[in-house]
Design brief:
Number of helices: 12
Shape: elongated
Number of strands: 12
Structural class: alpha/beta
Largest sheet: 6 strands, parallel
Distance between the termini: 19 Å
Strand order of the largest sheet: 2-1-3-4-5-6
Strand content: 15-25%
Length: 337
C-alpha cells in the first residue's frame, strides 16, 4: 500500500505516481489516497482484507492531520502486524515519535540531526522520472513552433509566490528587449494550496507580458501539463532555472523534471536544492546577479554541453528504475524480520 497525496496537484503526488509506476513492474502496489485519515478504521479494515504486508506513507506536514492524530493511526496500523515504512519529504519536529512507531524511515536528504543511532533509517535520493530516450531538440521545436536559432530559458514548478516568477520576468525585460531571439518559458500551474496568492502571482505575470509587449518572447502556461509535455518542453530548451526566496529543507520534486530532460539547470543556492550536484550551477540569492550569470551561461555552448553530460550522469544514478530496487530491498527486509 502507498499512502500519498495521490490525487492532488503537488510534487509529492507526482513523485509517488512516478515511483509506483516503476514499482508496479516488480511488486503489487495498491493506491491509497491521502483522505484515508478521515476514516482510519475503514482504511485498516481494507488493508487487512487485502493481506497487505507493508504500508509506505509519503509524509509532509501539510498533507497529514495533526501529529497526535497521525501517530494514533500509525499505532493502530502497527497493532495489526502491518509493517510501516514512512518516506519523509521533510524532517519533522516530531521525528523521534514517528521513528519509535514505524519499522523503517526513508529520507531524501541527510538529516540535520546526525545523532540518530539506528538501522531503521535509509537515505534514498528523490527519484527522477524515467525518460530513457531523449527526443530531438529540432523536432520538438518544430512541434511547439520554436525556431532553431532561439535561445530558450525555461522554469517549471507550481505557481507559488515564493518562486517570484513575476519579479524574475520583470528583471529579464532588458535582456528580452535587446535580444529578439531570447525566449522565456514559464511552465507554472496553479497549485491546490495557497490558490489566492498564486492567482495574484499569475495576474502579475500576465500584466507584465501585456504592458511590456512580451507576448512573442514569453510562453506562459498555467495549466497542469501532462508529464510528456513537461519533459518535451524542457528538452527543447537550452537551460532551465529555479529561483525564489523559500528556505525549505525538503527536496525539490520540480528539479527532478529538469534532470529527466537532461536540461542544464541554474539554481539559487539554498537548502531546497542541496541534494543535487551534477548538471547544475548554483548562483546568487540576489535576482540581478543570478540573471546576469544565467544569461552568460546560456550563451556558452561549451558550458552547456558539459552540464548536459553531467545531467546524464545524474539521471543514470537516480532515475526511478534505480531507486525502486532500493525500496524493494527495504520492503523485503522488514517483511522477513
Amino acid at each position: 500500500y502507498f499512502v500519498s497525496s495521490w490525487e492532488k496537484k503537488c510534487g509529492i503526488a507526482m513523485y509517488t505516481n512516478h515511483l509506483v509506476k516503476a514499482l508496479r513492474e516488480q511488486h503489487k502496489i495498491v493506491n491509497v489516497y491521502n483522505d484515508f485519515f478521515e476514516d482510519s478504521q475503514k482504511f485498516i479494515d481494507d488493508i487487512k482484507k487485502d493481506n497487505i504486508e507493508v504500508l509506505n506513507i509519503q509524509y509532509h506536514s501539510v498533507l497529514i492531520p495533526p501529529i497526535d492524530d497521525f501517530l494514533a493511526i500509525l499505532k493502530k496500523v502497527s497493532s495489526e502486524n502491518i509493517k510501516i515504512v514512512i518516506t519523509l519529504h521533510e524532517e519533522p519536529d516530531d521525528f523521534f515519535r514517528i521513528l519509535d512507531i514505524v519499522d523503517h524511515v526513508i529520507i531524501h536528504k541527510p538529516l540535520k540531526n546526525t545523532d540518530y543511532k539506528t538501522n531503521k533509517i535509509t537515505y534514498i535520493p528523490m527519484g527522477i522520472p524515467v525518460f530513457p530516450i531523449l527526443l530531438s531538440k529540432k523536432d520538438l521545436r518544430d512541434k511547439y513552433s520554436f525556431s532553431s536559432n532561439q535561445t530558450i530559458l525555461s522554469t517549471f514548478g507550481f505557481l507559488t509566490p515564493w518562486r517570484k516568477n513575476s519579479d524574475f520576468l520583470f528583471n529579464l525585460i532588458p535582456y528580452l528587449k535587446s535580444n529578439a531571439l531570447l525566449h522565456i518559458q514559464i511552465l507554472a500551474s496553479l497549485p491546490t494550496f495557497g490558490v489566492p496568492e498564486a492567482e495574484k502571482e499569475l495576474e502579475k505575470i500576465k500584466n507584465i507580458i501585456k504592458k511590456y509587449k512580451l507576448t512573442p518572447q514569453v510562453t506562459l502556461i498555467s495549466d497542469f501539463l501532462p508529464q510528456s509535455e513537461i519533459s518535451e518542453r524542457l528538452m527543447l530548451s537550452d537551460i532551465g532555472w529555479l529561483w525564489g526566496t523559500r528556505k525549505g529543507n525538503e527536496s525539490s520534486a520540480a528539479a527532478r523534471d529538469f534532470i529527466a530532460a537532461r536540461l542544464p539547470l541554474f539554481l539559487v543556492d539554498w537548502a531546497h536544492y542541496h541534494d543535487i550536484s551534477l548538471g547544475i550551477i548554483k548562483s546568487s540569492l540576489k535576482i540581478k546577479p543570478f540573471i546576469d550569470a544565467l544569461i552568460s551561461v546560456a550563451a556558452s555552448k561549451d558550458i552547456l554541453n558539459q552540464l548536459k553530460e553531467d545531467m546524464e550522469e545524474s539521471y543514470n544514478a537516480s532515475n526511478n528504475n534505480v531507486i525502486i530496487g532500493k525500496h524493494i530491498n527495504i520492503f523485503n527486509s522488514i517483511i522477513n524480520q
